[in-house]
Design a protein that fits this description.
Number of domains: 1
Structural class: mainly alpha
Shape: globular
Number of helices: 14
Strand content: under 5%
Order of helices and strands: HHHHHHHHHHHHHH
Radius of gyration: 18 Å
Number of strands: 0
Largest sheet: none
Length: about 280
């Protein structure tokens, strides 16, 4: 059981890393990010159906299960929509370094409220993962930004995503992982009207040629295995590990698009490799 959480977490890291490298394909084919959210939410449905079929038995329907699981889904899906608005107001290279440090909040909340602990070796890996995440998320650019609304929105995403893993971990104590994911899928689908309202349909190409749905399935699978990792592992370890997915993204971007990482990103990748070794 102690090993299974690691492989679930690494599956999330891998699928999210590949998803990050390929996500620009649908955008180049006329699928804006908010519309991509709607596609992702729909891909959550078959993943939830397969998971529930595998589990068998009825889904938990008591009030606590519904509230806690739906809250976890709201924090994740809602955070994505807030992020879209932040990226509309400011470039990604100043938004993502703020948002990407949400594992630090997860760690603090997990220690304070879930009473989670870890061996010194894993704490060393966790400590290295945080600067690694920050360095990897850096991007070049010199655009000027006015106002601070983007900063407020980025901070909101930081808080929502930082709290989500703790809520999901709390949910898995009394609800099956399959049930938690099913509620997450339902919450994601419920936000589709909001994502469509945020979509600039004048920029949409209705003759899509890219594998939009297939790419978004990677995101959905990563979310599913994240829930399983949180069920069997500790949030203070799982979340920093899965947040290193950009390492995979950078490596694939180099292979697919010939983009060399920034020096800071290279340092972050080295720290990430050491962190994964220590955590594992």
């Amino acid at each position: 059981m102690r090993e299974r959480w690691f492989w679930f977490a690494m599956t999330t890291t891998l699928t999210w890393g590949v998803w990050g490298a390929l996500i620009e394909v649908p955008e180049k084919h006329g699928v804006p990010a908010p519309l991509g959210y709607a596609i992702w939410a729909l891909t959550m449905i078959p993943c939830a159906w397969i998971a529930l079929r595998r589990r068998g038995g009825p889904i938990e329907r008591d009030r606590r299960s519904v509230i806690v699981c739906a809250t976890g889904g709201l924090l994740g899906a809602g955070g994505q929509l807030v992020l879209f608005e932040a990226l509309r107001l400011a470039p990604a290279y100043i938004v993502f370094p703020i948002v990407s440090l949400y594992p630090a909040l997860t760690i603090m909340l997990s220690v304070a409220f879930l009473r989670e602990r870890a061996p010194r070796r894993q704490w060393a890996g966790i400590a290295l993962s945080l600067p690694a995440i920050g360095l990897i998320s850096l991007q070049g650019g010199d655009a000027k930004v006015s106002g601070y609304v983007w900063l407020v929105l980025a901070t909101i995403v930081f808080v929502m995503w930082g709290a989500q893993a703790c809520v999901l971990k709390l949910a898995t104590k009394t609800v099956s992982a399959e049930g938690v994911f099913a509620y997450m899928a339902g919450t994601a689908v419920a936000f589709i009207p909001v994502s469509l309202a945020m979509t600039d349909f004048s920029a949409v190409s209705w003759q899509w040629t890219g594998p939009e749905a297939a790419i978004q399935v990677l995101n959905a699978i990563g979310a599913l295995t994240l829930v399983f990792a949180l069920r069997e592992g500790k949030a203070i370890v799982v979340v920093p590990l899965t947040s290193l997915a950009p390492v995979i993204t950078i490596i694939l971007s180099l292979a697919l698009y010939g983009r060399a990482p920034l020096p800071e990103q290279g340092i972050g990748m080295v720290l990430a490799a050491i962190a994964i070794y220590l955590v594992a």
